[in-house]
């Protein structure tokens, strides 16, 4: 029996076109907000639009009038397009370049781990701190000098050197030597360099604080709230950690300027019932920023998880209460900004990127930040060197004696590159929040043993999703006072300036 050729019939071109001429849908992602039923639509470049279920149905069925205000908004936000594609695609390209600017940037943040020795034994410590008398846990000048060579191989416009420990103040002489050498080199090479020191502040005397002031060293410390919370989280030998921290913040502010002092709170189980008290402590200390950071799954924190840990639901209950109280205080004239909220809101409300590693895709670890350990090891992030302390050094890029170009071609960076693009990860690629979020291969190795991780059970994913839900719920309220508070955090401008500007415009 012979086979006969069958004619292949194709549907007419009209069958593949939009139901309404001149109106096409661009790629977008959606999520229904749990609090108010709004549907969040996000474009590929991070523009967003909140719509009702009825409006959404009209949009996807191509029934939305082109002369409606909603259609105009959707077009300006790269969610729909009409027949004139050219200018639209040019705008998308420009916005993509802006949002992904970090991909083409050389490392800006360079962390020097000066020592593992510390006078505290914080229960949630991310590393394994060493006793004050311990030997072999301090960075040498020869290691620091090689690390500086790597720093200045970066072509970044502004170089930031951050000093960490342990307690960085225990190696203050080395810190001074690094600062002098970096300043001399920056002047010779016409490069901008800034310095940050992470410290309890307890061990810094007046002479050392004078040095910090003279060299514009930003000071970052930890304040976990009122004394009964702080002392429980951050015990020291003299059992007066909170009192010494409060006094040290005041002293450092008087010498260096309060604007050069910042603090963060690591939230433990002890912290959860005391959101307002923690914030009140910051207000009383004269601080203008607070960072409410969950416990990281590294170092001591892993051993203390049963005592200090909590679920994402428990943390977010605390965080929601804290944000609501912060908004209330800001509207009363008390300026206090939650720094992670500022980063998230910058991602949502502006087209500009942030330098925060957790919010970068492709992942910025090893690309925009390098960590130089006390022993000369170079890591893709601070969390990566903490992971190494736990026995897993797969994110060690190499040693300080290797050139930057070689370090960035290391097997560690291959892992980051292969698993660090959120838009390609299962569970992330179709998430409405992915334009604002990032991938964190180091965290997922620590928690799930795999650099990609399972997004359905990922604590990182659960927490990020809850953050974005919270802030989009606030945005959906369209409350001008709340939005003014958010913009004051983003712009670092007084709320009164933004409110007066809004009133004049109105």
Task: Detail the topology: elements first, then pairings.
Blueprint: E1 24-25, E2 28-32, E3 39-43, E4 48-51, H1 53-60, H2 69-76, E5 80-81, H3 86-99, E6 109-113, H4 141-153, E7 158-164, H5 172-189, E8 192-198, H6 206-214, E9 217-222, H7 227-233, H8 241-256, E10 261-267, H9 275-284, E11 289-294, H10 300-303, H11 305-308, H12 312-331, E12 337-338, H13 339-349, E13 369-372, E14 377-379, H14 382-389, E15 396-399, H15 404-407, H16 411-419, H17 441-448, H18 459-476, H19 480-491, H20 495-505
Parallel strand pairs: 6-7, 6-13, 7-8, 8-9, 9-10, 10-11, 11-12
Antiparallel strand pairs: 1-5, 2-3, 3-4, 13-14, 14-15
Helix pairs in contact: 4-5, 12-18, 13-19
Key terms:
506 residues, alpha/beta, TIM Barrel, 10-stranded mixed beta sheet, 3-stranded antiparallel beta sheet, disordered N terminus
Summarize the structure.
Helices cover 42% and strands 14% of the residues. It is built from 20 helices and 15 strands.
Could you characterize the architecture of this molecule?
The protein is an alpha/beta fold. Helix 4 packs parallel to helix 5. The chain folds into 2 domains: 17-99, no CATH class; 107-407, TIM Barrel. A 10-stranded mixed sheet has the order 12-11-10-9-8-7-6-13-14-15, with helices on both faces. It has a 3-stranded antiparallel sheet with strand order 2-3-4. Strands 1-5 form a two-stranded antiparallel sheet. It has 20 helices and 15 strands. It is globular and about 80 Å long.
């Amino acid at each position: 029996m012979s086979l006969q050729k069958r004619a292949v019939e194709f549907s007419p071109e009209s069958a593949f076109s939009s139901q309404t001429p001149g109106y096409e849908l661009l790629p977008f992602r959606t999520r229904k907000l749990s609090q108010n039923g709004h549907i969040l639509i996000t474009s590929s470049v991070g523009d967003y639009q909140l719509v009702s279920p009825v409006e959404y149905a009209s949009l996807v069925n191509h029934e939305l009038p082109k002369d409606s205000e909603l259609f105009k908004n959707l077009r300006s936000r790269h969610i729909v397009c009409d027949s004139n594609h050219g200018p639209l695609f040019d705008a998308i390209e420009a916005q993509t370049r802006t949002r992904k600017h970090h991909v083409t940037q050389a490392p800006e943040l360079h962390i020097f781990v000066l020592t593992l020795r510390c006078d505290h034994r914080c229960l949630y410590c991310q590393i394994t701190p060493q006793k004050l008398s311990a030997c072999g846990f301090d960075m040498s000048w020869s290691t620091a000098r090689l690390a500086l060579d790597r720093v200045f191989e970066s072509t970044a416009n502004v170089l930031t050197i951050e000093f960490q420990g342990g307690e960085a103040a225990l190696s203050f002489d080395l810190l001074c030597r690094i600062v002098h050498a970096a300043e001399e080199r920056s002047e010779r090479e016409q490069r901008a360099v800034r310095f940050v020191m992470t410290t309890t502040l307890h061990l810094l005397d007046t002479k050392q604080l004078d040095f910090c002031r003279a060299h514009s060293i930003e000071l970052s410390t930890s304040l976990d709230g009122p004394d009964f919370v702080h002392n429980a989280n951050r015990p020291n030998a003299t059992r007066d950690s909170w009192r010494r921290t409060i006094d040290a913040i005041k002293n450092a502010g008087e010498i260096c300027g309060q604007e050069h002092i910042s603090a963060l709170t690591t939230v433990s189980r002890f912290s959860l019932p005391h959101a307002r008290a923690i914030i009140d402590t910051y207000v009383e200390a004269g601080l203008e920023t607070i960072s409410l950071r969950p416990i990281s799954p590294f170092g001591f924190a892993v051993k203390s998880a049963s005592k200090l840990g909590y679920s994402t639901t428990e943390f977010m209950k605390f965080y929601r209460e804290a944000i609501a109280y912060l908004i209330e205080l800001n509207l009363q004239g008390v300026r206090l900004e939650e720094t992670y909220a500022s980063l998230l809101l910058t991602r949502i409300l502006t087209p500009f990127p942030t330098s925060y590693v957790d919010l970068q895709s492709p992942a910025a670890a090893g690309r925009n930040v390098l960590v130089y350990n006390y022993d000369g090891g170079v890591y893709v992030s601070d969390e990566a060197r903490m992971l190494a302390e736990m026995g897993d050094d797969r994110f060690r890029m190499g040693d300080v004696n290797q050139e930057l170009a070689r370090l960035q071609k290391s097997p560690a960076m291959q892992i980051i590159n292969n698993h660090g693009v959120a838009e390609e990860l299962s569970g992330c690629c179709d998430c409405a929040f992915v334009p604002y979020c990032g991938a964190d291969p180091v965290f997922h190795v620590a928690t799930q043993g795999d650099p990609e991780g399972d997004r359905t059970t990922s604590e990182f994913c659960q927490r990020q999703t809850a953050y974005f839900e919270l802030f989009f719920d606030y945005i959906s309220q369209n409350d001008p006072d709340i939005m003014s508070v958010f913009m004051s955090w983003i712009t670092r401008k007084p709320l009164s300036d933004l409110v007066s500007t809004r009133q004049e415009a109105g």
